[in-house]
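Here is the promised in-class demo. Please do not try to memorize the tokens; focus on the logic of going from shape to residues.
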């Protein structure tokens, strides 16, 4: 994993922990292959994570059109942000 991908993954983990604390959710043990729906966050929680990531990283694969579908795993979400970041 490259340095930028690692930074994005760390930002994702931090955002997920912040949202879990705000919503009272309990995060699952996560690895890159963890399915988003198995993370412990519901759809609203995941939307909050995306909003925080957009702000923290300064890019959004969902707003700029670079996302070619919805990610299923944490690794896919990191890849989307890495690709969007490379586009800037």
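The designed amino acids, position by position:
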């Amino acid at each position: 994993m490259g340095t930028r991908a690692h930074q994005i993954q760390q930002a994702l983990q931090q955002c997920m922990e912040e949202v879990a604390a705000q919503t009272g959710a309990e995060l699952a043990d996560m690895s890159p292959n963890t399915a988003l729906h198995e993370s412990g966050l519901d759809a609203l929680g995941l939307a909050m994570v995306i909003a925080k990531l957009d702000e923290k990283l300064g890019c959004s694969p969902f707003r700029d059109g670079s996302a070619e579908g919805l990610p299923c795993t944490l690794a896919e979400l990191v890849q989307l942000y890495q690709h969007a970041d490379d586009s800037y």
